[in-house]
Amino acid sequence: MLWYDKDKKDGSDRTGASTKGQGEMKMNTGERIKQARLAAGLTQTELAEKIGVKFSAVHKYASGRVVNLKRETLTAFAKALNVTESWLL
Q1: Burial 57-67 (b: 16+ CB within 10 A, else e)
Q2: Given pLDDT bands bounded at 50, 70 and 90, which one contains residue 25?
Q3: Cα–chain-centroid distance for residue 85?
Q4: Is 29 in contact with 63 (CB distance < 8 Å)?
Q5: Which of 70, 59, 43 is nearest to 78 (CA)?
Q6: How far apart are CA 24 and CA 52, in angstroms?
Q7: Residue 77 half-sphere exposure, CB side, CA atoms within 13 Å?
Q8: Which of 50, 53, 69, 78 would be a feasible disulfide site paired with 85, CB 3.0-4.6 Å?
Q9: Are 33 and 62 in contact (CB under 8 A)?
Q10: Residue 11 within a domain
C-alpha cells in the first residue's frame, strides 16, 4: 500500500499530485512472484524447496524486502514458476 491516500475526494495524493487516470500501478517483482506462485498452486515452502532456498528467502523476495535479485535466483524463480525472467522484472 502506498504511503499516501490515493482516494482523497479531490483526486490528489498527499503531495497534491493528481491521481486521476493513473489506473493500476505496475506490479513489482515480489508481487509477480506471489501471483505466479499462487497460479502454480505452490506454497512458499514448496517454492523454496523447488529453487533450493529457505522459506524465509522466498518470503523476503515475495514481500519486496529484497529488490535486487541475483540473476541465478531470478532464473530459478522463472523456471520453477514457468514464467519468463522478463515477466518477473
Answers
A1: bbbebbeeeee
A2: low
A3: 13
A4: no
A5: 70
A6: 33
A7: 27
A8: 78
A9: yes
A10: no
Number of domains, the chain: 1
**Predicted structure pTM score:** 0.69
Domain hosting residue 68, numbered range: 29-88
Three cell numbers written together for 77: 524463480
Q: Per the structure block, which three cell numbers stand in for 76?
A: 530459478
Q: What is the pLDDT of residue 48?
A: 97
Q: What are phi and psi of 57, to 5 degrees?
A: -65, -45
CB-CB contact of 62 with 34 (8 Å): yes
Q: What are the backbone dihedrals phi and psi of residue 16, each rounded to the nearest 5 degrees, phi first?
A: 95, -5
CB neighbour list of residue 9: distance below 8 Å, 6 or more residues apart: none
Contact 45, 35 (CB under 8 A): no
